[in-house]
């Protein structure tokens, strides 16, 4: 199950020299036609909120007025002819939005019949170099994609770049709802809230057990029953799961969703140790496993950092799962990936239903609606985002596969077996040396290039341990 990702919202600006307004009448029509063609290509994978060719500072001011108040993700620039950098760079500095430069031109070839007018209509490279040099000197981050506007590989690179930049920009909108505080003594959860917001973007909102419980009576009974009936088709509901426990699990999912919406949050974490009083009732594992599949970030035990990382990865790929390496099969080079119960049903095997069953929780002795399944075989990338020395962050990643192995019928909760690219002992050594934490996120597919691009956009360190350190 992969969630549909929002399309990047862009302002598309064509660039040219003011001098050409008075000297190149026919070329103006040519450049406008080219810009219109490029806009149509761009609109296939981005929402263009405004677009305009600018020649003068007053044109730039008009663009600023057009985008004022709009929720723009990215400024996309293309030169239609030579462009002096100082026409646009001060505006980019003032705006502070991510910049993607699409360096293209009308013609794809220099033919034997090339004429001066062809050069006039296709001289964009020099202005791009002027702009990128000044951006570089100014310390302003930018991305650039060069290639002809009709070339499919170029368009795919542009699409990929915009998708990554939009995902990085979404970091500023990540809010983690933290129920019950953090697990005391787990140092890899520690973070500086101010640094988290300034150096990455996410922030956390504390939620007390009492606040959670106060929402439960507000959940509509008919909606609970409607969801239970849907579950009877979607899950393999085991006979030991009572209607009462099942309905309470659904109630708690709707409560979590309500609290997420009310707090404008898109990630969640809970510390079961502070929720162990029998009066709290069942822990919302049903909510967690289904909400992860809907794109909500999650991490266990009050781990705000990895809950934020989960949401960040979901913004990039549409799907992410929380886990940790519980134990190792050294003979078959396998990691046993599991947790108390949490695992996204979005990665569950498609050839069998997820079992929904009665599970006693060993801490507060309260039964909950548990799940039993394993992951769909295929390629996956495991990722950890962690604070690094100097106030920055680091992304550590490695890839591998979930092999098609018999299901462990005697195990009682969600799990999956993962085989990395190298021997498990080497990966474990390098992961620890790279500073990886004990909670990880997993995304389907081998996504190393996208993750590296995301880390670059966020200003993170990045380490791929597939080939060793």
Could you walk me through the main structural features you see in this protein, from its secondary elements to its overall organization?
This protein is α/β, with parallel strands linked by helices. It is built from 15 helices and 19 strands. The protein has helices at 20-23, 25-42, 57-67, 89-95, 116-120, 125-138, 152-169, 193-199, 209-215, 221-234, 243-262, 285-293, 304-317, 424-433, 448-458; strands spanning 9-15, 47-54, 74-79, 99-103, 143-146, 175-179, 203-207, 236-237, 267-270, 297-300, 321-329, 334-338, 355-360, 367-372, 378-388, 392-402, 415-420, 440-444, 461-464. A six-stranded antiparallel barrel has the order 11-12-17-16-15-18. Strands 2-1-3-4-5 form a five-stranded parallel β-sheet, sandwiched between helices. Strands 7-6-9-10 form a four-stranded parallel β-sheet. The radius of gyration is 26 Å and the shape is elongated.
């Amino acid at each position: 199950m992969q969630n549909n990702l929002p399309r990047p919202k862009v302002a598309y600006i064509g660039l040219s020299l003011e001098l050409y307004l008075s000297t190149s009448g026919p070329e103006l029509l040519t450049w406008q036609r080219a810009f219109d063609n490029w806009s149509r290509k761009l609109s296939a994978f981005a929402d263009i909120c405004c677009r305009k060719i600018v020649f003068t500072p007053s044109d730039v001011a008009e663009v600023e007025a057009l985008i004022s108040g709009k929720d723009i993700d990215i400024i996309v620039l293309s030169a239609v002819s030579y462009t002096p950098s100082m026409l646009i760079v001060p505006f980019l500095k003032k705006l502070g939005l991510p910049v993607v430069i699409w360096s293209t031109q009308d013609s794809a070839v220099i033919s034997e019949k090339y004429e001066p007018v062809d050069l006039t209509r296709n001289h964009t490279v020099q202005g791009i170099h002027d702009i990128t040099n000044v951006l570089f000197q100014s310390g302003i981050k930018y991305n650039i994609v060069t290639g002809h506007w009709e070339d499919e590989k170029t368009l795919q690179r542009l699409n990929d770049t915009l998708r990554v930049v939009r995902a990085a920009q979404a970091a500023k909108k990540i809010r983690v709802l933290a129920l019950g505080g953090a697990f005391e003594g787990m140092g890899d959860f520690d973070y500086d809230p101010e640094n988290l917001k300034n150096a990455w973007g996410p922030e956390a909102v504390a939620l007390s057990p009492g606040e959670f419980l106060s929402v439960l009576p507000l959940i509509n009974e008919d909606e609970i029953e409607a969801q239970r009936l849907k579950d009877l088709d979607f899950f393999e509901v085991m006979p030991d799961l009572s209607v009462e426990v099942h309905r309470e699990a659904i109630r708690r999912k709707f409560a979590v969703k309500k609290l997420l919406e009310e707090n404008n949050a898109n990630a969640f974490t809970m510390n079961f140790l502070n929720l162990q009083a029998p009066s709290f009732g069942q822990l919302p594992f049903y909510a967690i496993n289904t909400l992860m599949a809907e794109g909500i970030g999650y991490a266990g035990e009050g781990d705000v950092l990895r809950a934020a990382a989960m949401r960040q990865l979901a913004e990039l790929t549409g799907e992410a799962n929380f886990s940790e390496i519980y134990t190792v099969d050294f003979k078959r080079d396998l990691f046993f990936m599991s947790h108390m119960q949490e695992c996204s049903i979005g990665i569950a095997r498609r050839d069998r239903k997820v079992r929904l069953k009665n599970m006693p929780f060993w801490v507060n002795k309260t039964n909950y609606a548990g799940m039993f399944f394993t992951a769909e075989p295929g390629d996956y990338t495991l990722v950890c985002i962690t604070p690094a020395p100097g106030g920055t962050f680091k992304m550590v990643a490695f890839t591998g596969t979930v092999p098609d192995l018999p299901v462990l019928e005697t195990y009682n909760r969600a799990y999956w077996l993962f085989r990395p690219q190298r021997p498990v002992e080497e990966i474990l050594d390098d992961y620890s040396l790279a500073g990886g934490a004990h909670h990880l996120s997993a995304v389907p597919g081998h996504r190393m290039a996208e993750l590296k691009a995301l880390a670059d956009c966020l200003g993170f360190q990045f380490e791929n341990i597939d080939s060793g350190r």
